[in-house]
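**User:** Everyone, produce a chain:

**Assistant:**
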Amino acid sequence: MKTAMPPVVVQSGQALRMVGCGILHKEVDYLIGKNGWNVETHYLDSSLHNYLGKLSQQLDTALADYERQGRETVVFYGCCHPRIDSLLESHHTLRTQGQNCIVMLLGYEKFMEELERGAYFLLEDWALTWEPMITQAFGNNLAVVREIFHSSHKYIVAIRTPCSLDFQAAATAAAAFIDLPLVWMDTDLAHLEAVLAEAIARKQVA
């Protein structure tokens, strides 16, 4: 994706508010700082992907609050809720383009290449909260949890970015918990940067 970096956003003297998933919060904050974008962030818990009702409610509440404040917003989410685009339309805003955060980080081709091999993608934020997040969503029966993952995945690919800390122990424990092999992938932030730039640029002319 080739997108020129947009100029600093000016919205009536106020920063653009980016509301989105906290799964890549370190990476997004880094890119905002690197490019000098006049953007402030509001992150929602990354575990909301497991609870669609809570996700839509919290996103709706955040956008409504900023509307009342007269603030312009842009949303950092993929197709993480079946009605996300209609929700954003009702708030006169838009989101980053991409099916999910992994597509935005790696690009569609790399994502599909690994997905077709049976990958489950693990980012640092999820690795650090893995067992309680998984058992809260799927229950405490380990055999059932493993069956859920084994039915559609052959291995876990843990993704490291330039912003990642050392989460090797957490990733190893996550893979062992669901009894899947663990592999590692390193990626830069070029694709994510282009995705964010494109959304900010569209918001400036929307």
